[in-house]
Amino acid sequence: MSTFTDEGFLSTSMDEWSRECSGRYSEWFALCKEFNRYCVQLLRKLAHRNRQESLAVALFIRLLSLFESSIILTERCMVNETKIQLRAMMEALFTLSAIAIDEAMVEQYYDNNILKKLNSLRYYKSHGSDALLKGLDLDRRIEELDGMKKQKSIKPLTTKTLAQKAGLLDFYVSAYSFFSWTVHSNIIDIGQYIHGKSDEQIEEVSWHPQMEGIDKLLLTAMECAVIGLRSVNELFSLGVAGEIEKYFQRYHELAKKLITNEID
Question: I want to staple 73 with a disulfide (CB 3.0 to 4.6 A). Which of 82, 89, 98, 146 is the partner?
Answer without folding.
Answer: 82
